[in-house]
Amino acid sequence: MAVCIVAAVFFADALPATAQKRLPDNRAQVELSYAPLVRKAAPAVVNIYTRKVVRTRQVSPLFNDPFFRRFFGDDFGFGLTPQRKRIQNSLGSGVIVGADGVVVTNHHVIEGADEITVVLSDRREFDADIVGADERTDLAVLRINTNGKPLPHLELMDSDLLEVGDIVLAIGNPFGVGQTVTSGIVSALARTQVGIADLNFFIQTDAAINPGNSGGALVGMNGKLAGVNTAIFSKSGGSQGIGFAVPANMVRTVIDGLLSGGGNLVRPWFGASGQEVNADIAASLGLDRPGGVLVNKVYAKGPAMKSGLKPGDVILSINDIPVSDPNALKYRIATLSIGKKAYLSVLRKGRTRRLALPLSAPPEDPPREITELSGKHPLSGATVVNMSPALSVELGLKGFIPGVFIMEVRRGSPASRFRFRPGDKVLEINGREIGTVKDLKRRLSRKRDKWDVTINRGGEVLSLNVGR
C-alpha cells in the first residue's frame, strides 16, 4: 500500500499544473447547481389550461346500419336526436416573452379552445386572448391583460449559436403535476426529417419532455429561451430521451410577424423548388460530399428568377449558413424579413456564384376568382379557384403549381356524382387546355352532348367521358 501511495504522489508531481487543477480543492467546487438559472427562468414559464365545448349526439346503433343508410342517406337519424354538450379540458405550457403579457405556446395546445387560462408560477391566473397562430410551425401567440404590471419574461437567444453538447433545461408542466425542470444536452441540431410540422427544423434534446410540456421552455445556460418544446419521439407516451423544440430564431419570427400583422403571418416567397443533393447527385456534379439543394424549377417573375437563379444550380448556403436539404433552405428563408435581401451561394457549372435574393411576399397572381360552377355539365356543383403563390402558401401546399383547382364539391351535385374531389386540377375540357377559371367557365358555357374532362389528381392524369 505504501508503494502505491508513493507512486501516486510521484506521478501527481509529474503531471502538468493544468492537469492537477482539474481535481477539486474543496467541497464548494463540487457543489454545482442549476438553481440560480432556474430561479431566473422558471417564473416566465406558465401553465396553460383550455376548455372546449364539444357537441355530440347519442345515436342508436340502428342508424349505423348500412341497410338504413342506403335508403335514407348518411344523415339518417341525426335530425331526430338532440345534441349533448360536454366540456373537454386540456393542459400545456407556455413562455412569457414580453413583460406586457405576450405568451408563446404550441398551436396544438390551444387549438379549438373556447376559454384559455394562463397560470403563473406564483399561482396568479389570467384569461388569455389568441393574437394569432401558425400551424406550419405549431406555434401560437397569446396575450394576457396585466393591468400595466410587468411580468417576468425570457429573452430569446440566437439559436444558431447552439452547439451539439450544450447543456439545456426543459421547463414545463408534464402530466399536469406542476412546474418541473429537467436537464440534458442538445443532442442534435437542424432535424429536418421529423415530420411534426410543415417547417421542419428542430433542436433535438435528451432533457426529459413529457405530455404537458408542449409549449414550455428549452433554456440555454445563458438564461435565454433556446426553443419551445413541441414534441417527443416515444413508443410508450413518456420521455425516451428524444425531444424536439422549435428554435428560438423561428419563434422570434412568428411572434414578430403575428404581433405586427394583426394575427396574420406573411413569410417571404422563394419562387423555386428543388431536391436534396444525395451521394449520387454529388458525384455527378463533382462535389466532394452530399449537401445543398439542386434547383429543378424556377417560377416566372418570382424572387428566385429575379436573383438570377436557374434550374440546375446547387444552392450551398444562404447568408453564409450552409443548407443541407430543401427543408433547411425553407426554414432559413422563413426566418427572414420581407423587404430585405438574402444572399445565396450557388454552384453553377463548377463555379461558385453569389446571388442577391429579394425577399417579397407571395403574390396573389392570378386573382383567385373563387367560383361555384353551375349548369348542365359534369363539373356543376364544384367550387374552383385560380391557384396563386399566395393561395398555395395559405393552404400549406408543398410547392406552387399554377392552374385551376377544385376546392369544394357540393354534396349531391353532378360533380359529386362523377366523383370529382377537392384538390383535383382541371387540365382540359374537350381537348382544350384550361389555364384560368375564366377559361373553364367559357368552355363549360357551351351546350354539348358530350364532355371529356381531364384532371390531375395527385400526379395521376385521369379522364372522364360523359355523353353519347
Question: How do you describe this structure in short?
Answer:
The protein is α+β, with helices and mostly antiparallel strands and 468 residues long. Helix content is 19%, strand content 35%.
CATH-assigned fold name of the largest domain: Thrombin, subunit H
Per the principal axes of the C-alpha atoms, what is the gross shape?
globular
Largest sheet: 7 strands, antiparallel
Radius of gyration: 29 Å
How would you describe what is shown here?
The structure is a single chain. The chain is of the alpha+beta class and 468 residues long. It has helices spanning 2-14, 17-20, 35-41, 66-72, 107-110, 248-260, 279-285, 303-307, 326-334, 389-394, 414-417, 437-444; strands at residues 45-57, 83-98, 102-106, 115-119, 125-134, 139-144, 167-172, 180-191, 202-205, 217-220, 225-232, 243-247, 272-276, 293-298, 314-318, 321-322, 341-348, 351-358, 371-372, 382-387, 403-409, 425-429, 432-433, 450-457, 460-467. The chain has 4 domains: 43-61 and 84-144, Trypsin-like serine proteases (Thrombin, subunit H), CATH 2.40.10; 159-260, Trypsin-like serine proteases (Thrombin, subunit H), CATH 2.40.10; 272-358, Pdz3 Domain, CATH 2.30.42.10; 371-467, Roll (Pdz3 Domain), CATH 2.30.42.10. It is built from 12 helices and 25 strands. Strands 19, 20, 21, 22, 23, 24 and 25 form a 7-stranded antiparallel sheet that branches. A 6-stranded antiparallel beta barrel has the order 1-2-3-6-5-4. A 6-stranded antiparallel barrel has the order 7-8-9-12-11-10. The longest helix has 13 residues, at 2-14.
